[in-house]
């Protein structure tokens, strides 16, 4: 049997984690689409917990896209200075706000989201998944990058775009919207750098478990 390929019925094998994490909200504590977009941009190379910490005060000052669009980088920076790469992120957010102008204009397609500054495919996939629109890709965050090769889904690589592309080739489009987040939650909770294999709902199909148990 081909280890990495369509000969595997991955949809059936991954069903336990799809069921376990079905509809689970992203760990970013957002209240609307505007907050989600801002927090996703801020969370690049930083932790969701850190973004959740600074978000309430930030959104008191900037409650919507309109308020952000009439601001400037110098005014924004003090509110996000505790996160990584805050200078670039301030630039990106002001540019996004000036482009989008109003909350209702936030795009929800891969093409239009990735056209915005600071939003790559991973961020766009997260926004689209949380907004409940049809998936055009698969979330490939650092957990998915670590866990997917471990399971035996794909060969190991640190390139998120490559991980996404390979997953899209072997997984049915019907599960694209949920599988990335399901693997991500598995990576956050169970399949950590030091994995808790005995607790894993898919250990029976996992290459790592078969080799290391």
Automatic annotation (TrEMBL):
What GO terms are given for molecular function?
4 iron, 4 sulfur cluster binding; DNA N-glycosylase activity; lyase activity; metal ion binding
Sequence ranges assigned to domain HhH-GPD in this UniProt record: 42-189
Q: What are its cofactors?
A: [4Fe-4S] cluster
Per the record, the GO terms for biological process are: base-excision repair, AP site formation
Q: Which UniProt keywords apply?
A: 4Fe-4S, DNA damage, Glycosidase, Hydrolase, Iron, Iron-sulfur, Lyase, Metal-binding
Task: Look up the domain of life of the source.
Answer: Bacteria
Q: Which PANTHER family match?
A: A/G-SPECIFIC ADENINE GLYCOSYLASE/ENDONUCLEASE III, ENDONUCLEASE III
What is the designated name of this protein? DNA lyase
Q: Which organism is it from?
A: Flavobacterium gilvum
């Amino acid at each position: 049997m081909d280890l990495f390929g369509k000969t595997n019925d991955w949809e059936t094998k991954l069903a336990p984690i799809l069921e376990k994490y079905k509809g689970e909200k992203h760990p970013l504590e957002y209240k609307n689409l505007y907050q989600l977009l801002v927090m996703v941009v801020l969370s690049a190379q930083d932790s969701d917990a850190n973004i959740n910490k600074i978000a309430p005060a930030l959104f008191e000052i900037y409650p919507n896209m309109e308020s952000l669009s009439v601001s400037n980088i110098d005014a924004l920076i003090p509110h996000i200075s505790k996160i990584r790469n805050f200078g670039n992120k301030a630039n990106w957010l002001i540019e996004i706000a000036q482009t989008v102008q109003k909350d209702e204009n936030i795009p929800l397609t891969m093409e239009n989201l990735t056209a915005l500054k600071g939003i790559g495919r991973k961020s766009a996939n997260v926004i689209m998944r949380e907004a409940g629109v049809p998936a055009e890709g698969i979330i490939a965050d650092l957990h998915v990058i670590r866990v997917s090769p471990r399971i035996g889904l794909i060969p190991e690589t640190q390139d998120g775009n490559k991980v996404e592309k390979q997953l899209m080739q072997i997984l049915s489009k019907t599960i694209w919207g949920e599988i990335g987040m399901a693997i991500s939650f598995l990576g956050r909770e169970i399949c950590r750098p030091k994995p808790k294999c005995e607790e894993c709902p898919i250990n029976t199909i996992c290459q790592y478990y078969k080799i290391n148990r």
